[in-house]
Design goal:
This protein is of the alpha+beta class. The chain is built from two helices and four strands; from the N terminus they run E-E-E-E-H-H. The chain has one domain: Ribosomal protein L28/L24 (Ribosomal Protein L24e, Chain: T), CATH 2.30.170. It is elongated and about 60 Å long. One of its GO terms (molecular function) is structural constituent of ribosome.
Length: about 80
């Protein structure tokens, strides 16, 4: 599963871990990606989305219909 939110477009962050002695090693801040299923009445079926927790909150606030319409306009596959 790709580490990318389909709603917000968030991707992992990259940087350095810095130890007490100030040595730097590469690290990555992963997202909390969840695979969620939603029923979309306009499509008449369920869709599965890879979402970050912020993307789930966005769907809760705006509604699945509005988010799906925006994803279709972007050309997102689901």
């Amino acid at each position: 599963m790709a580490q990318r939110c389909q709603v917000t477009g968030a991707v992992p962050g990259f940087g350095h871990s810095i130890s007490h002695s100030h040595r730097r090693t590469k690290r990555r801040w992963d997202l909390n990606i969840q695979k969620k299923r939603y029923y979309v009445p306009s499509l008449g079926r369920t869709i599965t989305l890879n979402l970050s927790t912020k993307g789930i909150k966005t769907i809760d606030a705006r509604g699945i219909e509005a988010v799906v319409a925006e994803l279709k306009a972007k050309g997102e596959k689901f």
